[in-house]
Amino acid sequence: MIKNFIIKFQSQTDTSQMQSLSLFIQNINTNWQTICNLPDLLEFAELIQYKQDQLMKNKFEQIYDDQNFSFKNEIANEINDKIRSNPVKNLTFFNKIQDEKNEDLRIRFSQIEQDIQDKLLAFKQDKQIQKKIYLKYLKQLSQRINSSLKDSEVIVFEEIKNIEREYQNKRGFKSLDDFILGISKDPDQLAQFKENEGEIKAAFNKLWGDITRESEQKQSEILQEYSTKQYQCISSSFNEYKLNTQNEQLYITSFLENINNNSPFRQDFDERMQIYNIFEKELKSQVQFRPIFNTKETMRYGEVFLQNLEDRMKRPNTKYDVMDIKNYYQFQIKVYYVEKKTLDDYIKKDKKDKKEGLIIDLIKILERSENNQNQPKGKQKQQQADQYLYQCLDVNSFGQQYESVNSQFQQYENVNPHIQQQFNVNTQNQQYMNVNTQVQKLLLLLDIFKIKYDSKLRIDLVETIQDPQWWKIWSSYNKQVINAFEKFQESFKEFKKQKQPLMDFTNDTFIKNIKEYNKGLELKTGQYIFSALKELEEFIQNFEHIIIYRDMTIIPNSSRYKQLESSLKYIQRKESSFQEIFRLNFINWFQTAMFEENQKLQQNENCQQNGFSKFQQINSWQMMYFSIYDAIKSEMTKAHQENDKKDNSDSEEISQQNTSLIKIIMSKIEQEIINYNKSFANFGIILSGIGERCIYYYSMLIIWRFTCYKKGKGVQESIQKFESLKENQLQKFIADIKQNKTEQSKLKAEAFICNFYKSYIQYFYRDNQTTFGTEIKNKNKMTSTELIKLLDKTILEDYQKDNQLKKYSDEQIVQYITDQTQFIENYVKNEVDKIEVEIKDLFENRLRKNLNSILEKINANVQQLRSHTDIQNPPIKSKEYFVNNENDNSNDEFYESKLFDLIISCLLGGQQKMSKFQIQKEYEEIFSIDSYQKIEVNIFDKSKFQESELQIQLLQPFATELSKQLNIHIQKAKNESLSLEKFNSYQELQTIKLNMIGCRHTCPMCKRKCDQSYSNDHKHKCSNGHQLRGMNGVLIENTPSLFTCDEMDDECLIETLETKVRKKWKDIRKIYDDWIFKGLDETDQQTIKEKMMKVWNQGTGQMICQQLKTLLKKDIKFVLKNNFQDVIRQPKIHYIFMLDDSGSMRGKRWEYAKSGCLGCMLEIQKNLNARVSVIIFNSYARTVINCESVNLVEMEKKIQLSGGGTDFGRAFQETFNLIIQHQNEAFEKTEILFYTDGEAAYPQQIKQFKELPEHQKARIFLHCSSEESNATTLQMIVNELNACLIKSELKQKFQVTELQKTWAEIVSREYHNLKG
Predict the structure, then answer these.
(1) What is the value of pTM for the model shown?
(2) What is the pLDDT of residues 454-467, one digit of tens each?
(3) Under 8 Å CB-to-CB from 632, ≥6 apart: which residues?
């Protein structure tokens, strides 16, 4: 832009140039404003895109729902009608019907797809929808249509195969009739059979064996064909999960031959290992992992990898940690310690011993000071000048000013003897104060190890050191100090009688102090390596000596993984020098190691928790794929089934496979993959695209496996039912051969009622397909968004404090808040189960009622028939009912068939055509149609009967048996059960479940579940609003955070719930760019804000605070949501400044300390609820400002230097007094800001702070700053206070010039910059 402007500028006049320059500057300003607003513009564009997507989605669902898919419910009826209307029935005809029906379905679905496409295109053009969004829904449409087509083809297939099975069974039964017909033509053979029932049974068993083998063979072929078709259906409907592999046919064959037909519920065999062994070659042949680099796609996993290694290792193991990072590193520590006896000897030795001891180290300090006093005047004088200069100069420019000021000092000294005398006095005071400091540091050993002594004698020692009357003569001074020390020493108690001291072993302050001042104490060191942090902690806890300091480092486990040392260093430190080696070597090694590592040894506890303990050994791949199998099995197995069987019974019910069920399962698998990737991210890697697809493809195989087993189980049930007919067929076979007409007639009556009963049930399923579909559709009204809105209302908004009025327990409410996905999944499962029970009850009662009604009508007709037949004695043969011509040569079978037709017409109320043969006049009344009730339902189908069953030999026993069988079946109908799976729309229950659960992702910031519908390419969003972060334990100090994700500013600092890493909100949004955090308009956002305010304020908030208090074992303060902003941004805080004004603070150091304090107050006065106190201390302490509002002018006057020694004890006593004095003023926090340039004795007054109530301690924060590089006393104070839960910190080697900046940062911390 600049280059183009210059070219144009050079060719213009002066006036034009000025106009161009003005325009150019304006363009720059416009472009710059665009750049500045780019994040907001991008977010706005994203929001517009989302709104269009929602608009298109709603229209798409509306158009799709308006389509008439009821023809799917008529498929079975249409097939049966076609077959019934055709007299020719054979396998070729059945296959023709199947092909025609499939072609008809393809045409229908293609027309529907085209119709929807046209309507979507018109809507796109009308609403100016982006092409990308339009194409997205065209793709979804294609997937839905294809899935529906495949489902319909399976319905066709199953119906045709059921008809084929019945046809094959009927053909088998015909072979029995043919055998009987054959022997009936041979009188001798017939007579032989009649006399020997054993021969009849033998002949029957041989024929039955042939029939059974043929039936089973056909069933097996049908199952094989069904399994293949199901695989094609699943893989084509979910092509995005299919794996491009050369082993596909091998997997199909292996599953068909070895897996699918076996029960997955056996207790004596775990098929997971068998399936894994089939699939393992895929894991070995393809690269399963990829490194995490700084890409948008892997950014959220990079957050895990960027955590400190120690933090990653401290995380408790879950089932997803199939490779435990703790196994690859060791803990190496170097321990500095002192033996108990050595310590006792050191503190108790007297000066006569001449060996190293505490008193000898004291004498050395005094001797060094005396030598310094006796050194040459010039050198001493220069040191004194240096001390004076340091007090006068700006410490930041000391080197630059030293020469000129030193020269001025020498000249000024020569002409001003009074100044020189005052200077000498000050430096002498300083020298003895240095002795005091060194002695105090020497004696800190007693406080470090908590050695008891007489406090009064210690005070006497300090007063002796600081007594000016002994300062003139060093020898006298030393003698007095030693005498005072010896008296003090006599009060020491032996350490071995004390408890192990509580100290921070990882801080080197104590060891430095001991090395510098307690030189006579013999320290020892030891270096140790541990494989687990727990072992290290146990070692420290049980260490027999006194640990002073330990230096712990994490190192690669070189003894086991020498070849990985460089890669493990990269995982630990992320150093670029190791990155290439890591990329080239580690992934291959890691993938192989997952086959080799026996996790039973590496993670025995984790294996036990996740059900793998029964395996002698199990590798990491097996752990992962077994868990995936278990997740699928739990979804494929009906929830109400008991899975804790101790035998191999196979009573579990498997869910019917359909598109919605697969989507539900795959959404679960997606979450599983995310969790596994989070674990692998500890190593700097995640599953590659191939690795993820392997899991999805494996999941498809497992779904297919359960689906095929369900079908196979149905086939086995059919075989068992067929086998159950054996006894009936045998009795019929015997009766027909013996020509026992009475028995034959009874068996025909039984067969008629059984077939009629079965046919009506089949008719009921076909006739109610559409009604059932409508009933299911009426239930399918609630989306995930609507469900969460409902649950928010019933669980959160309608919260009741009274337990008797509660709909949900507090535990359930907490689960809804903290684990919303699982809560909703359980809730939806219960709701769908209720819907299933309701619909089953409705249609089951309808079936029973209709069955009973039709059977009662038939029974009435039978009773009418029996009114004529019961008086026949003996029974009349079938031929005798008809008028016989002299030339009639028809055999008995002919008349028996005609009698069957007549009786069926009577029983069904005239539905069958009357026989053309004339009835004997005396029997006409029996067959008068008008005397029988008409049966409205036409379900009688001769094709369902064997030819031999369409005969009545003797009407009287036939009618009597009919009556008996009807009574049996009327009773049976009262308890007839319904199978919902025989309705095509039954799978819509899974669709209801899918729609209600929706997306399973949860907000990474507040754990609120995404309430959008499930799809692979949608943006996650909480349309019902994000929940308050404090509901999930996010605290601002001791108050739950009452901000939602859509309320936070871009610059807010957020600590993520998962990684505990603090980032700006705008940076977190970039990481989770698949989430829309601000997608609501102002009205909706305000409504949700008011909802959450109501939820928190009316009782839920107090309950959550109580739960958090119990969980975290700390005081949690409840604050109303509407007051939260004021409480957070104008918190009531008491700031207590503790300033050292000892003699060493004179000069620039004091000026910087004072200005730092006042500058901090300038920041404090922005908070109208803040109060300030100032304590100034030297040998004594004084409170110059007592809990006042900031008034800089007045306060500046009160903060003045006095000079003197240094005593922390009196300063902390003043602080404690202030806390007690103002404890009833309801301060949210007490911030103590402490500064000193030196050291002092450990203050015993710290013990008082430990006695404060827990809630009060939780509100105190101590910030210590010291110029000392080894501030041992302050470190001890910080340790003590942290141990009793008063938060404390120490900055050592602190420059006073940084004081204002450091304290201002503490004070100006934005409390809406949320932290966990």
Answers:
(1) 0.80
(2) 888 988 888 888 77
(3) 665, 669, 699, 702, 703, 706
